Amino acid sequence: MASLQSLKYSPWSVDQAPTLSVLDQLLIPEIKEYIPILNVQDAWTVIRTMQIRGAPLIAIVAALGLAVDVSSNPAELQALEESDIEGTRAILREKMEHLKTSRPTAVNLFNAMAELDQIIADESLTSKSAVTKAVVDYAEYMLDRDVKDNEAIGKFGAEAILNTMSAERKEAGMGARVVTICNTGSLATAHYGTALGVVRELAKLSQLESITALETRPYNQGSRLTAFEITEENMPGGQLICDSMAAYLMKVKGVDACVVGADRVCANGDTANKIGTYSLSIVAKEHGVPFYVASPFTTLDVNLTDGSLIPIEERPAQEMLESSRAPSSIPCWNPAFDVTPASYITGGIVTEKGVITERNPDGSLNVTAFVNRHTTT
Predict the structure, then answer these.
(1) Domain end (from 95, 122, 145)
(2) Where are the extended beta strands (E) located within the chain?
(3) Which of the residues 16, 74, 154, 182 could staple to 201 if both were Cys, CB 3.0 to 4.6 A apart?
(4) DSSP 8-state assignment for residue 343
(5) Which residues are catalytically annotated?
(6) What is each CA distance from 55 to 92, 140, 324, in whole angstroms?
(7) Per-residue pLDDT reduced to its tens digit, 57-67
(8) pTM for this one?
(9) Where does a domain end: 145, 169, 204?
């Protein structure tokens, strides 16, 4: 299990309301400091300012932030009668709508709010207290589910990578040489990680020769966060390279697999992830390196047919200017994400329910069929 904690949560009990604090990832690796989350606005702020990031973690912090908020009996809820169910639902939905405005690309956030909306709509809830308690209970369930899902993703992903390694390397007893971009470990989830969770599983099986992190310009999530996780846990063969070095690494030293995370996966398998992922997928395909996307089932968005429909967040120019020492007057275009076409995801999409590898005649991935098979009715 990963040693780093992206959040600290104390659950609801008879004696106390739940509490939540999150690790300020803008201060990593120099400082480990936790920020208390007392209400929905606090949760919105840490998501918006990227003090926490990673699609799964964004969803969990939003859900737990709502749970902490309603448990504190805020003024707007205090003003309602205990029997005012519709008023309670309206206030909770207003808070959830606000959370959804924090960041636009990661679908996990929107799916989490949709799940909570279904919970509060339950007609068996007959009081204000019952509605708010249902929100807290379900948010805590989502926290537990995230950890278990990440561990399952790790197992499926490690198995898939080992199955595609060359026979020569296997016979020689060599482990996998893996490349990743951005941060997809404990700092991007409630715990363990998605793509980096796959790497953790390989290490646990003594099947990891090396893990190479791209620095992930311009915000450096790879050099600040993934490199930090690699060194904190002494992962075998950990190293950091510039984003532009990936192609030469594959040519000169060899790579067995690329594994990345995702903020949204469309019905055809097109995938939004941190800017630079698309470039990495192109060079991986050119060098015959299997390319995997590791993401929870909640990241699959079959309502969008393809990647052209994914809203791409554009970040402030200052983020690029400050990290590049560029002249302050130069205009910047700073998209936070790009879209990798399904045809470049040659290994498949790894979820906690299995690996999506089924292709349509046009080369796209049949995500819709996978979702339909694994959706509980």
Answers:
(1) 145
(2) 7-10, 19-23, 34-37, 176-180, 208-214, 238-241, 257-260, 264-266, 271-274, 291-294, 300-301, 337-340, 348-351, 354-356
(3) 154
(4) G
(5) 263
(6) 22, 17, 26
(7) 999 999 999 99
(8) 0.90
(9) 145
